[in-house]
Amino acid sequence: MDTMEIAIFGQPPTVDKLVDEVRQVKEQGFTTFVTPQIFGLDALTALAVAGNHVPGMRLGTGVVPTYRQHPMMMAQQALTVNQAIGGGLLLGIGLSHQIVVEGMWGLSYDKPLRHMREYLAALMPLLNGEQVNAEGETITARGGLEIRTDRPEVVLAALGPKMLQLAGREADGTLTWMVGPRTLESHIVPTIAEAATDAGRPAPQVLVSLPVCLTDSPDEARAAAAKEFAIYGQLPSYRAMLDREGAAGPEDVAIIGTAAEITERLEELQAVGTTSFAANAYGSPEEQQATRQLMVELKG
Fold first, then answer.
1. Closest CA to 18 of 57, 47, 55
2. How confident is the model at residue 6 (pLDDT cuts 50, 70, 90)?
3. Based on the number of CB atoms within 10 Å of its own CB, is 288 exposed (0-12), middle (13-18) or buried (19 or more)?
């Protein structure tokens, strides 16, 4: 791929395995590795360890929920991690979901756009090494931090039009999951790009992640995707993107097939404005290994 970076998305179960994974990814010639923040490892803590052992990688979170910590604490942690790994942190942040924020954490999910707008108003100056004096309806932040390091890149998990506009104005781009090429072309890319242009900001990053399986048994791989990723067909924000794509479920946006078919799908993503593609290999161990090797060959 000439203009679209190929990255790796992974979720090792232990810190030691994450370090090993990042080391292997680097040895294979990739420059970016992204890991989620769900119910396994704390992503930022784990990446601080991995990046300290394996320097020179761009390490991303996909994504850290904002409701769980004050923006000053998020900035403090992110800057600490960026210093620990020698720079190269890609801080992906997002709202998470109402079922998690309210159902599991007992916090209010009221007016999520307001929350993220106020969160970024506090977070971004702190990441830039500036004092902040922000007082919103729900978030107040006053003061500064004494951590000397470059500002991490910040991408916002944004799917709706207003959240995409916010990402274009205030962040470095967006990170998507379970979003297909038609939706990227007609909605995600033009919305965030226009907002960034209107704000006088550089062209935004559009980091796309999807399940990928190199296989000779596509029907089985589709069935596996439908089962493994079923929750993403039920969560409202992802369901809206699948509906927009005309997809019945995650199996319809997963990238499945032969090497030629997968290459064609990635070329389509590049053509609609994807700047980085983070491959989330799934399937049998043999299929995952073959998928990774194909990504090695395609990354250029």
1. 47
2. very high
3. middle
Q: How many CA atoms lie within 13 A of 226 on its CB side?
A: 10
Tell me what percent of the residues of the chain surpass a pLDDT of 70. 100
**pLDDT per residue over 145-156, tens digit each?**
999 999 999 999
The predicted model scores a pTM of 0.96
Distance between CA atoms of residues 36 and 61, nearest Å: 6
Helix axes 112-127, 71-84, angle to 10 degrees: 40
Residue 268: burial class (beta carbons within 10 Å; 0-12, 13-18, 19+): middle
Pair 250, 233: CB distance under 8 Å: yes
Q: What domains does the chain contain, in order, with CATH numbers?
A: 1-23+31-156 (3.20.20.30), 171-300 (3.20.20.30)
- C-alpha distances (whole Å) from 225 to each of 139, 210, 288 are 39, 11, 13
**166's tokens:** 């916010």
Write out the two tokens for 105: 């954490």
> What pLDDT, in 10s, does the model give residues 62-80?
999 999 999 999 999 999 9
Mean pLDDT within 102-129: 97
Beta bridge partners of 141: 134
Give the chain's end-to-end CA distance (angstroms, integer). 6
Region 26-50: mean pLDDT is: 97
Contacts of 150 (CB under 8 A, 6+ apart): 82, 87
Q: Is 94 helix (H, G, I), strand (E, B) or coil?
A: strand
Q: How far apart are CA 199 and CA 214, in angstroms?
A: 41
* Res. 119: pLDDT tops 90: yes
Q: Which residues contact 153 (CB under 8 A, 6 or more apart)?
A: 89, 90, 91, 172, 173, 205
187 closest CA partner among 149, 220, 158: 158
